[in-house]
């Protein structure tokens, strides 16, 4: 087996019913349920103009820096509802995707979204498109197509490990990875947080906020309150 230069044709995917439920939740609430350790680096930002959250199963791509050979293979394999998510060795010098590749995935393949740990191009067009695409930046500089790389193997994107078939959730705040083995365990909690937060927002809008936790924490930290102005 050619390690580092291979394509796995099968992957174990998260339960579609769980994907549907997570797709109704904001990333912030889900991230809180994952001990606040599951969000991709904020460097990977939303570049298009979707009308709803991105949520689908990960089709992972490991690429050599500035190379999109295996991304093209993943495009060929992509199914409706997939989120193509690509690692790029932290390279920021070359665009991994442009309008043609995007339209193939968004319009023909009907993927749920695209996450690129690197730049894209043709942003004048993609910024107006509805299929979610996340990337670090834009550049007109094109990528190589030489490899090596892998499809449907483990990758690291934005500081987070992603396994093929994991749930990838995105909104304007960013992207959260929900490990497929943990999805069923946290879905009820995440939905409860979303419901509870809606109530908190309504209360906050009329000044009704519980500060008891703040008072307790400040006391435990021995914070001193001084009824004077600061002076040198």
Topology, please?
Blueprint: E1 5-7, H1 16-22, H2 27-33, E2 45-46, E3 54-63, H3 69-77, E4 82-87, H4 99-109, E5 113-116, E6 119-120, H5 123-126, E7 133-135, E8 137-138, E9 149-151, E10 155-157, E11 160-162, E12 167-171, E13 174-178, H6 183-204, H7 212-220
Parallel strand pairs: 1-9, 3-4, 4-5, 5-7, 6-8
Antiparallel strand pairs: 2-7, 3-9, 3-12, 10-11, 12-13
3D architecture notes:
The protein is α/β, with parallel strands linked by helices and 232 residues long. The chain has a single domain, classed as Ribonuclease E inhibitor RraA/RraA-like (Glucose Oxidase, domain 1, 3-Layer(bba) Sandwich). Helices cover 30% and strands 22% of the residues. The protein has helices at 16-22, 27-33, 69-77, 99-109, 123-126, 183-204, 212-220; strands spanning 5-7, 45-46, 54-63, 82-87, 113-116, 119-120, 133-135, 137-138, 149-151, 155-157, 160-162, 167-171, 174-178. The strands form three sheets. Strands 1, 2, 3, 4, 5, 7, 9, 12 and 13 form a nine-stranded mixed sheet that branches. Strands 6-8 form a two-stranded parallel sheet. Helix 2 (27-33) packs across helix 6. The longest helix has 22 residues, at 183-204. The chain is globular and about 65 Å long. The chain starts with a strand and ends in a 12-residue tail after the last helix.
